[in-house]
Amino acid sequence: MTIVYAGLLLGALGLAFGGLLTFAARKFHVQVDERIEQVKECLGGANCGACGYAGCDAFAAAVVAGKAPVNGCAPAGEKGVRRISEIMGQAAPDTEKMVARVLCQGENGVAMERYAYDGYKSCAVAASLAGGPKDCRFACIGLGDCQDKCKFGAITMANGIAQIDPEKCTACGACVKACPRSVISLLPLSQNIIVRCRNSDTARAARAVCMDACIGCGRCKKECQYEAIIVENGFAHIDHEKCTRCGACAKVCPCGCITIE
Amino acid sequence: MSANMNVFLFFVSCVLTNNFIFSRFLGCCPFLGVSNKVETSFSMGMAVTFVMTIASLCCYMIYNWLLIPLGLKFMNTIAFILVIAALVQFVEMFLKKNSPTLYSALGIYLPLITTNCAVLGVTTLNVNNGYNMLYAVLNGAFSALGFTLAIVLMAGVRERLESSKIPECMKGFPITLVSAGLMAVAFMGFSGLV
User: Fold this and answer.
1) Under CATH, what is the fold of the domain A97-189?
2) How far apart are the C-alpha atoms of B30 and B34, rounded to whole Å?
3) What is the pLDDT along chain B (194 residues), one digit of tens a residue?
4) Equal CATH topology for A34-88 and A97-189
């Protein structure tokens, strides 16, 4: 009998409190803009903070309040931005999908090793020890600071350098900030021709530390019919607007540092 | 001894001698979590006071008027949890409507009052000590005031700590726990007062 009483009593209590709370919920209902919830669903949802707000919730609220741009969330991707624009009743801004690229090919064996690093597994720590474990002061150190920061699992470390999967990359920019050497850049996804070296030393010095270093010879510049390449600071730069992705530059590069994805 | 004197002694006993945080070690989660700013911690203390007072009253009524007549004394923990959960939900709705600033300042710690052992602790203590209705409510209110006192004092200490030179390894949580321990030692001095 006791067990029946116990069940009944708790059931009744639960029902009574439930009823009271329902009543209170009606009474104290706060009108929340339902668009906030809708916008939130379109976002990356990783609370990466790349938008500059405290998290996805804060960003969604800011978008609805008109304080943040609809395309402020990089991980939302093109689809997300389009849907957010629909929710907000705006035309979708023309945004090109960006992707993070590692501008270094200094794998183990390609880039010269200054010393064997055996310490705490962090690029920032290694970079501060006698100029880093690789001779090149622009090289990817390859201990995975960027990998730790990537919330989308897009980065793997292979043979001493970082590799980014463009499919998984959402261009949130966390890795760009994490890299002590600034090796990672956000580039348009369509830009499949990339100068994978940032060594601004003279040709001889650059070549001495890495077999794949850009020596700033300018052959790519001469080959390019669209004047999309300039050589500045000792290495080649490609203008993404002018480049037609023909790939002629990559064929003539004597150092193999222009790659076609 | 007059009734007033009794109540006063009861107050001293709840707030200082048997302080919930420093001598019973109940409610330590919000004590460490929300004691960053004096203002927020005071609001948290007030929210806890409200919940604890009402919870003491409700639980007293449910225990004495429902559980005892039905011979269901052993169900007290579950019934009390139910009451507390419903109350906290209610407080949350109320604050969301009437004080959004306070609501966002308390953040996650507001729903966490549900699982704050201080609230369940006070209702269980009321039953164990056999308090009558008045004393049960007073116990809830005074104990919560003791909680408020502790959390506000702690917030004051932590605000000072922000601007003082602390060894790197002690910054943040470690120094907070050390200060909490020292404060607990200080509160031990009140034992034997009542």
Assistant:
1) Alpha-Beta Plaits (3.30.70)
2) 5
3) 578 888 898 898 888 888 888 888 888 888 888 888 888 888 888 888 888 998 999 899 989 998 888 888 888 888 899 888 888 888 888 888 888 887 777 766 677 787 788 889 999 999 999 899 999 999 999 999 999 999 999 999 999 988 888 888 888 889 999 999 999 999 888 887 77
4) no
- State pTM to two decimals: 0.55
Gap between the Cα atoms of B162 and B80, Å rounded:
39
Place of tokens 């609370």: A47
Please answer yes or no on whether B71 and A17 come within 8 Å at the CB atom.
no
Residue among A1, A4, A21 with most chain B CBs within 10 A, to mutate = A21
- Do β-strands A98-102 and A184-188 pair in parallel, antiparallel, or remain unpaired? antiparallel
